[in-house]
Each structure stands twice: as C-alpha cells, then as structure tokens.
Amino acid sequence: MSSSRTAPEDTAYVADPAPGHGALRPARSWLHSDAPALSLNGPWRFRLSPTARVAADFAAGAFDDGGWDTIPVPSHWVLQGDGAYGRPHYTNVQFPFPIDPPHVPDENPTGDYRRRFTVPAEWAGAERVVLRFDGVESLFRVWVNGEEVGAASGSRLAHEFDVTAAVRPGDNVVAVRVHQWSAASYVEDQDQWWLPGIFRDVTLHARPAGGIEDVWLRTGFAAGRGGIDPEITADPAAFPVTLRVPELGIEEVWATPADVAPLDAGAVQPWTAEQPRLYEATVTSAAETVTVRLGFRTVEIRGDRFLVNGRRVVFHGMNRHEAHPERGRVFDEEHARADLARMKRFNVNAIRTSHYPPHPRLLDLADELGFWVVLECDLETHGFDAVGWTGNPSDDPAWREAYLDRVERTVERDKNHPSIVMWSLGNEAGSGDNLAAMSAWVHARDSGRPVHYEGDYTGDYTDVYSRMYASVRESEQIGTDGSRAPLLGCTPAQGARQRTKPFVLCEYAHAMGNGPGGLDAYEELTRTHPRLHGGFVWEWRDHGIAATAPDGTPFFAYGGDFGEVVHDGNFVMDGMLLSDDVPTPSLHEFKAVVQPVRFTFADGVVEIANQRHSADTSDLRLCWRVEHDGAVVADGVLEAPVVAAGGTAVLPLPPIPVAADAETWFTVDAVLASATAWADAGHVVASAQLDRSAPRPVPAARARGDWRPAEGTLALGVAEFAGGSLVRLAGRPVTGPRLELFRAPTDNDEGAEVDPDADANVAGASHAALWRRDGLDRLTTRRMSVECADGALRTVDRVSAANSGRWVTVESVWSLDGDALELRVEATPSRGWSTVWPRIGIHLELPDGERPVDGVEWFGTGPLESYPDSMRAARTGRFAAGVAEWGVPYARPQESGHRSALRELTLTSGGTGVLVVTALPDTRGRRPGFTLSRHTPQQIARAGHPFELPAGTASHLIVDAAQHGLGSRACGPDVAPEFALRPEARTLRLRLRAV
Ligand code: GAL
C-alpha cells in the first residue's frame, strides 16, 4: 500500500486497468441484516482540483479542512454548487478525452472528500469493520485515519474495504479521492452524462464474529412446488445456521457447513412479474440474522423458447437508466417506486438495467412490484468504434481481470433477486475473449439464469440471440423457420445457430422526441413467431438536466448546453417519459399496443383473449359504454368468466342503441377490480372500440358552371374576402388558408440512419434535410385566378419554393350551402417531387386581437396526438384542450399535437366558442387531422429548446388532409412504406360556421 503522502506526480494508478487494490473484500450480496451499520451519507468536506496531480495531503487525520466546502454524499459534484465544480458532459459514443488507452488527460477533475465519524463503543467486539461504497464515478482511493485502505473502480458497482485495522473506537476520519477520468472510463462509455462523484451510499458495517458473510437462496418452481438451493458463506464457527420461512413452515437447521443442502419448500405460489409472490426468509446464526425475500421461479431456455415456470415470456420492456434532472444518478427510493409503479400502469412488464446495475434497492422494488429484469453489468467501450475497435479492452488480456471483477461484482450483489431472469455482460463493447471469459464465469456461478450480450452477434458465448433496432422485416426473418436471410455479422452457419435461440430486441423503438411509430408491428410479430420474445424500448426516460435560460426560464438541458467540447446534442432525450416524469404520447401508445387483454369484435359478440404470462383475468372487470357522437347514452359491466392465461372467452355484446344522425361507438375497458401496489381500482389495463355507426351519406360537392372573374370584397356566411383572399372569419381577422407542406422536423425526421428497409432515394439523408432542400419550409404563392359565382368564390394558386421547378396547384372553392360555408381545397402536386412529404395541410393564422383563440373542443380521436403509424392509443370521442397544453414540450421543439380523424372542432376563446369547423371525409372515406399551436412549424423548427420559441401572437390551426408517419429513424427504421406520405393529390372539405 502506498503512503498517505503521495507525491504530486505519483498518479500512475489512474491509468491502471486493474480494478482496484488494497483491502478490497470479495463481492457479496447486498443483504438486509441486523448487524450494526452506520450510514456515512450526509455532508462531507470537499475540495475540487483540476488535475489528479495534487498531493494527497488531505488524507492525514490531522489535516485541517476548515477552508473546504461542504458537499452532500451521495451526489455528483458537477450537479452541486451551481457550476462551481464544473458541469455535466454528455456524449453518446464519443470519448470526451483523447483515445489513448489506458491514459487520460492531465486535466482530470479530482474531488477530495473528508468526513469524521464516530465508531460506537459497542463495535469493539466486531470481528471486522467494513467500509462500503455503493457507487463512485470513476476511480477512488480511500484513507481511514491517514492510512490508505485501497482504491477501486467500477462506478456502478459496490466495493467493500476491510478497515478493521484502521478504525478506532470514537472519532475517526475518512478521506476519499475521486478522479473523474481513469482507465476505467474507457470501459464506462455508456450513452449518458458523465457525472463524477460519490453518488451512492457510503456505509460502515460492523461484521460480527460468527456472522453470515453471504447468503444465496436460489429458488425453483415446478409442478406447484418450490425448491430452495441454499449457499451460505460463513465461518464454520458461525454454525449452526437456521433457515426459516415462516409462511411455509420451514425451519431448517444446518449444524455444519456440510449440512447445507437443497430442500423442498412444498406447495408454493410461484413468483412471476404478474403475480410477484414473495415469501420472507431469514438465515440466522448466533450472531446475525439476514432477511431475504424468496420468489419461487425457474428460468430456462428450451429450444428457441425463453421460459419462466415452463411458460414463454414476452418482454414488454423498457431500458431504464438512472437519471434525474437534479440528482443525476443519485437514487431516491420514493421516486424510484413511483417510477416503477408508473411502468406497471403502462403495461411495462420488463426492465433492462441499461447499462449498469442500478441502486440495489431498485431490485427489491422490482421483486415486489413484479418485473422481468435483465440485469446488466457496468461495461461499454463503444468509443473504440471510432478507431476500428483497435485497442478495445474487450479483447486485451490487460483488461481481463477488470472484466471479470465487474461481472463478479454484478452477479454477486444481486443474485438473490427473483426478478432477475437474465444477466447481461454489458453493452456495445465489441467482442472478445474478455467477454467470453465473463460469460464463462457467470455460467459457472449461476446455472439458473441465461447470459445476454447483444454484441455477441455470432452467438459464440451467449444464450439468447439479441439485437438492437432490427427492422420489423429483419425481426420477422429471424423468427421464421427456414429463413436464410443473412443475419448481422453472421456466416450462414452462425446465422442458423442464432435461429435456434430465443430472440430478444434488447433495444428497439427509439423513443426520441415525437415517436416512435410502428410499435404495433413489432408486437404483432411476437404473436406469430414464438421465437421472438419481445424487447425493450429505448428508452424509459429523457435524461434532461434542470437548467435555467438567461431570461430565468427553467428548461431541461441536453448535450452542448454546458459548453462541452464534444457532445451528442439531444440524443440523450430519447425516453417515453419527459425529464420531469410526464409520459409522452408514445408511452400511451406502448400501453395500448402491449395491452395484455385483447378484444376482437364479431357479430353481436366480443372475444377476449388473455395474453398474460400466467395470471388469469380474475383481477379485471369489463366496463362498457355506448356513445353517440361522444356523448354516453348507455353503460354497464360485461358478465365475463375468468379467463386463464393464454385462454379466450366469447361474450355476447349488450344491446347497442344505434343513432340515426350521430356516430355510435361501443367501448370496452378492462379495469382493475381492486387497487394494487401500483394503481387504483378502476385503472384501465386494456381497451377497445367498435364502430357501430349507421351509414350516413356524405353530401356531394356541388359542381358549378357560373364562374366569372371576381374583384373587390365579398361576404359568404362567416367569411369575408378582399381581392379573393380571406380576411375575416366569424368577425375575426385571419390570414390564410395557405398550403402547409412542412412540419417542424421530429428527431426521427432528422435521423439519417442508413436504413436497409428505406427507399433507395432517401437512405443516408434525413427527410428533414430533403424537405429543406426542396423548400417545403419556405413556400411562396402565385395567385393564378380569382372567380366568383352566386354564393361562391374560387381561387387557384401555384405554390412553390425559391429555385424549385416543382409546384403544387391549389384550388380553393368557398360556397354557401344553407347556413354552412363549405371550403373545398384540392392540392395537386406537379411532377418531379422525389421525397416523402411531412404533411398536406392548410394553415389558418388567427391573430390574437382582443379575444385570442386559446382552446379547442373536438369530436375525433384523442385525447393525445396520433400519427398514421401511432394510432393505437387514439380513441374516438369528444375532447377539449387548451392551446397551451396542446403539443408535447419535447426537449427540442418539434412537430407535435396532430389529432387524427377529425369530425368537428370548435375553436374557443376563454371557454366561449368562436368558430365551428366540420370536416367531411374525402371520397375514399379518409378524414383529416388537425393541430392547434401558438407557433408556426417554421418557428418551432428554429428553436433548439422550448424557451427559444418566440412569444406567440396568434393561434395557428392546421388541418391536414394527410400527415407522414413517425418511424424511428433517429436510431432505427424509417417510416414503413404504408405510412409514408408521398406527394399526391388530396382534397379537404371543411364546413365553417359561427357558434
Ligand atoms: C444504442 C445504445 C444505447 C443508446 C441508443 C441510442 O446503440 O446501446 O445506449 O445509445 O443506441 O439512443
């Protein structure tokens, strides 16, 4: 061990790939024990240096830290002190330092921490005193009373040091030096903020003589019975040791270590993510009792099936990072519990702990609330991609010990959790012998859980076939027996081997900004191809950091907002939850797509299919209602038998009163009959709608022959025109309607992934770039004609962009039909448009004046936004919303808020109706969608953050004959061809009247 007076230049250990040195204890479970422990969380003295090359003078017990600052532990120093200790740094793949492994720059922020603590007199009898760190980023050295006890790396892993010889009863000092960068940073290159510091708990443990050092109670379940396979790590002198499971009447006494043997737990209820039945067990020696919660389940791979308790699992999963706008990766149990409860409410049944072990308590919560967990090791070396993977630690013997240490710490800490059904070696670390060695170690240690690692494309050392962002078509080819389609990185023989394994998408459906579209196509595959076991959405939440704009407006910062030298912008804002926990529409879509109960309507009946893993439907009630144009006219509860998992039942529908002059919709909701740990009674788990509307003819557009040139002013119903242009509607000034082909590009529209399934002409260039090239955001108009007839006005415009030889001809016909004023718009593109279009809409600008339009009530689909490839959460009904809450405040402003299949809307001002717009379907029955906004698409497209949007001076109503789908091209497949909008002729028919 080195001396406490480290010379300033003695920093070689910072570049040492070895995982640590000194009095490190072997990894063990994170146990709930009655042995004494002392939390060292709280205020610590703190000093930040810009480099590691500073004398470690502070380690001495007598050092005077009176001039130091105070910082809370746990925390990240870059999120403390309002910038006084540096700022967070975001990169995805890029290393924020030169690729010079295992070295890091001299500019290496180094935090020195000190605190005093009192060792209780009663601890004098302890056999050992252990100092535990649950998470320190990235490398740290520890001294107790001036004596160095060791150093360790592995930021999201637990480390325990034996400090018995260094502590004394009464007053003590612990000093910790933390380096932001170290050799370990090369293997912790996950897509997230770099957040240094002691960010998880620090505790001191008195280990009693005769204590239980570690316990592993492996469980199994078969044929209604549970089994326990115990492993007790304790000094032989600790025996006898007793296992008790009071609920099962188990009291097993092992007199010696040799007596510890598997036992039959008798008849038990199994543990599943749906019914997370836990039994409390204790393991007791004379000196210590530890408590473990048992969940009886057996995980196995049989052929190409991934089974728990003999039944196939379909993962409806989320990749979950630990991220919080103020705390970063610091754990908060209440927030985590609320987070997981929210997942349950949105039908999420699985979590991949991307890309490192979470705080250990998270697994307790997962056991309790019920999730299938893929527990991932803290490992990623993605930045080596930039140098062709040269020097990748995954294949370098110098790193073998570190890799094994990481996986050992991962598995040992969390091995008792029934929720963990797979171990994952890490993420995006290339391939190599060290990964294979990790896998071998896990297989030898835990035969009860398969090993996952996506980067093992050829399946040399992993048990499941895993991919990220495979397209629907490719996933289908993986799931299809006899398919010979080549698999990524595989020879035909390797591909054939991969097809013998269960397949998971460890990441899919990149949820950046508005999107993803096409979720339902993936879900459908899991029903038709049993080898496909679902997957894990990328990702659960945005990682925005709470920040304040120069004008004081709060916002969520992303890459570049802290002046980082290299960064990856808003790629860190790709969750189904916004940074402040607000579910985006994509999460509602996910919930609807994966709903575990499915309804199929047929003549007078509904079939309900229970698609759960193993739970029956006894927890659900089927509530129904009938609506006429969105107003409830009848409701009730369907009498339904209990349907077993995998089963179906056919129920008669109640009599449905069908309206003659309104749409008739029947809705059925499967709701929780009673409250659970994660939702109230009445919570909707699954839902479906049936359209029982009587057919009603759409009035034909009136053909006219009496057109004559028009000039001057004209009034038609609610509209007033000057020189052929609309100037007032319902007495209010307006601008437009004008053709709108542009939408503020979504992150997926900006995506330029080369997508194997995309049209050849767009692969490699983002749609947004092509839209800008073609000038869709800067259209100009030339009026070609203005004509009128009795009670009618017709204009023809040619709409085009600077330096473009393509145009759209827009014919608008206004005509009175009784009280209603109809506007029919025909938009017809010229030849030569080569890309997809974001939308074909008409844009009406409503300046604020005295009574700004600030809301809308509508009959159509809602309540949230929907797009052609994201329609499953949208239901038909009557809704209302204010313009301020209309769109989603994505971290980077973009297209948002489109409501599909509009029937009728009423613009409102202060709750009073201003204008009613009725939308007629086109001749193919297609209905328009609409958006209300305080900004134009062009204004939205220019803003990098919500606070950059100008103060709105008008409300904008855009009615779209069509919108392009969303896709997932920010990182994954483009919009599927059937949801892509090609330039084509479209008709809009709207009827307008004053309220
Ligand atoms: C994956 C990676 C994730 C994340 C995602 C894109 O390649 O595993 O960590 O970067 O892409 O957001």
Concise description?
The chain is mainly beta.
Q: Layout of helices and strands, plus pairs?
A:
Elements: E1 20-22, E2 32-33, E3 37-39, E4 42-51, E5 69-73, E6 89-91, E7 107-119, E8 128-133, E9 136-137, E10 139-144, E11 147-153, E12 159-162, E13 170-179, E14 192-194, E15 197-198, E16 202-207, E17 212-222, E18 225-234, E19 241-245, E20 250-254, E21 263-267, E22 279-284, E23 289-294, E24 299-302, E25 305-308, E26 311-312, E27 315-319, H1 333-345, E28 350-352, H2 360-369, E29 372-376, H3 400-414, E30 420-424, H4 433-445, E31 451-452, E32 465-468, H5 472-479, H6 492-498, E33 503-508, H7 519-528, E34 532-537, E35 545-548, E36 554-557, H8 585-593, E37 597-602, E38 605-610, E39 620-628, E40 631-638, E41 648-652, E42 664-672, E43 684-691, E44 708-709, E45 713-716, E46 719-722, E47 725-729, E48 732-733, E49 735-740, H9 767-773, E50 779-789, E51 792-801, E52 807-817, E53 820-829, E54 839-847, E55 855-862, E56 875-882, E57 904-909, E58 912-920, E59 929-933, H10 937-942, E60 954-963, E61 986-994
Parallel strand pairs: 27-28, 27-34, 28-29, 29-30, 30-31, 32-33, 33-34
Antiparallel strand pairs: 1-11, 2-23, 3-16, 4-5, 4-7, 6-14, 7-13, 8-12, 8-16, 9-15, 10-11, 10-13, 17-18, 18-21, 19-20, 19-22, 22-23, 24-25, 25-26, 35-36, 37-38, 38-41, 39-40, 39-42, 42-43, 44-50, 45-46, 46-47, 47-48, 49-54, 50-51, 51-52, 52-53, 53-61, 54-60, 55-56, 55-57, 57-58, 58-61, 59-60
Helix pairs in contact: 1-2, 3-4
Bound molecules: beta-D-galactopyranose (GAL).
Describe it:
There is one protein chain. The protein is mostly beta strands. The chain folds into five domains: 12-207, Jelly Rolls (Sandwich), CATH 2.60.120; 212-287, Immunoglobulins (Immunoglobulin-like); 301-541 and 576-590, Alpha-Beta Barrel (TIM Barrel), CATH 3.20.20; 596-691, Immunoglobulins (Immunoglobulin-like), CATH 2.60.40; 708-994, Beta-galactosidase, Chain A, domain 5 (Distorted Sandwich), CATH 2.70.98. The chain has ten helices and 61 strands. A ten-stranded antiparallel sheet has the order 44-50-51-52-53-61-58-57-55-56, with no helix packed on it. It has an eight-stranded parallel sheet with strand order 31-30-29-28-27-34-33-32. The chain has a seven-stranded antiparallel sheet with strand order 1-11-10-13-7-4-5, with no helix packed on it. The longest helix is centred in the middle third of the chain and has 15 residues, at 400-414. The protein is globular, with a radius of gyration of 32 Å. The chain starts with 19 loop residues before the first strand and ends with a strand. Residues 1-8 have low confidence and may be disordered. The chain binds beta-D-galactopyranose (GAL).
